[in-house]
Amino acid sequence: xxxxxxxxxxxxxxxxxxxxxxxxxxxxxxxxxxxxxxxxxxxxxxxxxxxxxxxxxxxxxxxxxxxxxxxxxxxxxxxxxxxxxxxxxxxxxxxxxxxxxxxxxxxxxxxxxxxxxxxxxxxxxxxxxxxxxxxxxxxxxxxxxxxxxxxxxxxxxxxxxxxxxxxxxxxxxxxxxxxxxxxxxxxxxxxxxxxxxxxxxxxxxxxxxxxxxxxxxxxxxxxxxxxxxxxxxxxxxxxxxxxxxxxxxxxxxxxxxxxxxxxxxxxxxxxxxxxxxxxxxxxxxxxxxxxxxxxxxxxxxxxxxxxxxxxxxxxxxxxxxxxxxxxxxxxxxxxxxxxxxxxxxxxxxxxxxxxxxxxxxxxxxxxxxxxxxxxxxxxxxx
Length: 382
Hints:
By secondary structure, this protein is an alpha/beta fold. It is built from 14 helices and 14 strands. It is elongated, with a radius of gyration of 21 Å.
């Protein structure tokens, strides 16, 4: 690290090899800020994760034993390790991602007599208002003690203001690695993957990428797929659900009950860098979410040239404009979801307009190369 470089203490509840919105965002931002050095503290959570790891300008320390309990223990281990590091290094700021367990560590650090400014990035995609009272209370306590905040959507910015009217809040959305998601593949590469998945030429493929959880509206998406098949008997509708989560077995049973068991494909968790290939096999990306912090998977689909269908939940309206960059649906109405998917499958003019507008929006507003420098601007000088 150069002597004049800024040094930032990063706190996050999860990091690679676990992959989610925050994990991807941290990796994409830090690698684009080579003149800033980051010390990253996180719970270990899995035994496959190394306890320490150096990656260019990021030194990663994973605390715990590799179990889910590490998140809770992080409130203690993360606080004491961070306190040691604050004594060893002059940090420009403490940057915590999400107001969860890592946020709890930041809350404890905020009571120290001397500490760098604490910056929080709110990324949560859960239905925040519907969580139980202790969780809402804890999140409110965390938000009330920070010095500055960023939010990935205007929806989350408003949420922060419920608890903290004094801190500056800047909307910095998550972005897309356009070079990764806009790449093209040979016919042979796609045909080989399609054959592995059981997708035949002419199939109408609807894709969802993300956690298999209730808040993503996957049960109604599955009912919409069944409705599409019933309404269009000449079609072979396939639903490609990429990802893992607690709802997998429930969704598999629902598919059988709906009579589309052989049409629903569960490829599991795949590499972030393989996602574009799966998107290129598909005609429509759909996620009828009940809540979203922003919805990065939508933006990745748009960058890949796949039209999207989503709800007006959370931060999605920041980028999904009905009839322009995608189509909005009622997440509680499977027939409405199906009707919007069918519009994109049958109306070539609409499809072309939506795809072009989506690509242009990602290029202008959601490219990581443009977003990452905005984080550098909020880190104060030592």
